[in-house]
Amino acid sequence: MAVSVCDKTHDDCRADDNRPLLPREARLPINRCNLPAVILGGPTYQQNPTPLQLDGVAELHAALFCRLNDINDPGNRADYFRDYLTVHFRLEKPEDAGLSERGGKARAKATWRRMLRGWSFDSDSREGAVLKGWVESRFGLTPRFHGEPLRDPSSDAYRRYLEMRSQGLYGTNALEAQFDLVYAYCQYELARQSDGQTHLTLYRGVNRVGEHEVLGQDAEGRKLMLFNNLNSFTRSRERAGEFGDYILTVEVPLTKLFFYCGLLPGILQGEDEYLVVGGVYAVKMGTV
After folding, report:
1. Integer Rg of the chain from CA
2. Section 6-28 average pLDDT
3. Given phi > 0 = left and psi -120 to 50 = alpha, else beta, which region is 2?
């Protein structure tokens, strides 16, 4: 399997224009993506994104995307994609995937759909830990928060996160591979429907701004903020204001969208929610 490796060793590395890069403690030296974490997680990538490809997904599922190319209606594509996930991962026949009657079928219910719904209720849940762990594995971006700050891999907080992640993954049927395909489908749909658009303006309502990791400021006065490795945003500024006294406005590259409301009807309903892969972003900060 191909991997991306970063050979930088500075704890406080900076780009040539003196903008802070992704801190060393917020990234892994290896991932399963075509770009290393220090690049895809930095502010330069936000301004100049290029496609992100997870190792082996396009090759393994080439027939799926060829078939999707022939389907013109987005709703029909979504239906076909759901059916493909169900059949490929044997989601309705877990015994075909080797899950036994004794406890195995119960864990078979832990699918991509349940994880996303769990996230929508509580991003610091066990489902949230699984999704953050997937981002860590695939993109090399380590989580910065899960119920409490995660700054030290040897801390009790980080151990609790790892326990939740392990419990969520235990006995499941290729759950992270399901996420791989969901991300690939999201990127396929965005590329097909965006008409050349590269960014989307998204909003996030927050309180206690001082608890967020601000690494500096760019030439336009925007805060350079290090986000968690997976985050919820919304396309509605008004909706964002319901979640905090301060509103963060971010130009998010489409390539860093993992999932969004409307991609697959019935998931993430009601908040116009977007799940965004983290890193360092230039952020405009305002009040409600």
Report:
1. 19
2. 64
3. beta
Instruction: For residue 216, list its beta bridge partners.
Output: 224
Compute CA distances 232 → 16, 39, 51, 220, whole Å.
31, 22, 21, 25
pLDDT in tens, 228-239: 999 999 999 999
Residue 61 is encoded by which pair of tokens? 């599922």
Residue 224 tokens read as 């350079």
d(C-alpha 108, C-alpha 99), whole Å: 8
Distance CA 140, CA 126 (A): 20
Distances in Å between the Cα of 192 and the Cα atoms of 68, 74, 113, 231, 266 are 11, 10, 23, 24, 21
| Nearest partner of 41 among 27, 31, 53, 29, judged by Cα | 27
Q: Decide which of 111 and 97 is more confident.
A: 111
The Cβ-side half-sphere exposure at 55, using a 13 Å CA radius, reads 15
Contact in structure between 45 and 161 (CB atoms under 8 Å): no
- Residue closest to 221 by CA, chosen among 164, 286, 277: 286
